[in-house]
Amino acid sequence: NAGVTQTPKFQVLKTGQSMTLQCAQDMNHEYMSWYRQDPGMGLRLIHYSVGAGITDQGEVPNGYNVSRSTTEDFPLRLLSAAPSQTSVYFCASRTPGARETQYFGPGTRLLVL
Amino acid sequence: GQQLNQSPQSMFIQEGEDVSMNCTSSSIFNTWLWYKQDPGEGPVLLIALYKAGELTSNGRLTAQFGITRKDSFLNISASIPSDVGIYFCAGSGAGSYQLTFGKGTKLSVIP
User: CB distance A33–B103 less than 8 Å?
Assistant: First the structure.
């Protein structure tokens, strides 16, 4: 099992450019989430999904779109990048229920100029 | 919404010392998870707790699910340099689709 994989590892964008951060998991988990991590702010939830075809907003959704067409994949789209979106992005997958666990990917470091 | 207070924010300890950190929630949780994040990496799950009063170990790490279900504790015994990193707690309540995260405890170990 590869667990949770994310691509790319690093990305530099210019303001206004768009891009998609990829996330995939091979654990057949129902729940997947995207977080951003900024110094002093901890992990903040951007969007999450409780199953294929179902997504919802988290704490900081503005400027980001998601879709979940398969159980395995949960891409995050930046429609028009802004410097405020410079951050480290983590994807996570989770098994809900009585013995829930959540696993994170290695992260994507994004710099918006 | 739910809030998690994690303390201390940072700590500097001598190699060989024991370490304690804790998280307190504003509401009751059914699950507590503890993670460690190394610089430039994603958080790695260390310990999962599912029952009030539960005490679980993973090597030199021991975590406890508080009896009130509003707190959890992580202890590291005989710290070593590779324990350096940021430790996060996370929890969820009944029927919650989301985990709530603490802001982390940054641990530095002085050789």
Answer: no
Check pLDDT > 80 for residue B95: no
Identify the residue among B98, B100, B105, B106 best suited for mutation to test binding to A, counting A beta carbons within 10 A and taking the highest. B98
Query: Following DSSP, what letter does each residue of A34-72 receive, concatenated?
Result: EEEEETTTEEEEEEEEEETTEEEE-SS-TTEEE--SSSS
Reported as a single tens digit per residue, the pLDDT across B46-71 is 999 999 999 999 999 999 999 999 99
Cβ of A102 and B90 within 8 Å?
yes
d(CA A27, CA A93): 8
The residues with which A88 forms a beta bridge, in sequence order, are A37, A109
Residue B90 to residue A41, Cβ atoms within 8 A: no
Q: What is the residue type of B61?
A: L
